[in-house]
Amino acid sequence: MAKYQLEVGARTVEDALSAWRGGADRVELYVSPTEGALTPSMGLVQAAVAAKKAAGSNLGLFVMLRPRSGDFLYSDADFDTLLRDTENLYAAGADGFMSGIVTADGMLDIKRMKEVMKRCPGKPFTLHRGFESTRDQFRTLEECVDLGIDYILTGGLIPGGGLDTARLSKLIEKADGRIKIVVALGSGFTVDLLGPIIEQSGAVEYHIVNGYRQRLSQMQWVPGMEALDDDHLRKKLGTVDYLEETAVRELRDIFNKYE
Hints:
Oligomer: single chain
Number of strands: 10
Shape: globular
Distance between the termini: 11 Å
Helix content: 25-40%
Largest sheet: 8 strands, parallel, barrel
Strand content: 15-25%
Structural class: alpha/beta
Strand order of the largest sheet: 1-2-3-4-5-6-7-8
């Protein structure tokens, strides 16, 4: 296995296959990127599992468990939805799961996290960026280790946003191989920054989502009405987002230089 592991976001089966061909090790299957990533449908997960098998791929299919946008403090109804999704997507053949539940006072909700993890036994589990909603991230790390969580996904650790490579290094040192710290680099990330981040942080696990591009819709007829500002459906009719294989390959090639 390569030293540097690359995870990318995938919103369709085609995205997942592009990720694999581009050299990604695993994908996060999700929907609703403008809401920060939500749970994908059972149909998408089933189709991705079938496509992976047909292609002879070893790509890891991790699924997001997040029933709504907003915070990570879930009502009983939200939590019931999350548990049902976990059971269904486990049965659908997902390779791993990503979730995070936080209490009102900014602590990891250990009781509820245990309930989720009980429903996906034997599968790798990631505490997603809900990690950054906890008040003491070094304490949260220890709680994750005790829970048996495999990965922590973090996008920077600076309260106002941005990557603090020095603090990230301390987090990796604290983890001491007991849990893997995955660096999330979002749409504002540019490829030229990857080398310095690798050198300064010491991280070997990365989640990068900047490989998305847009193509024009192939519809031969599109409604001619101008979209209102809040009509997001109509505003998106003319284009389709997709993950570009060559963008993933560019990242893999950079990682290969550091192997």
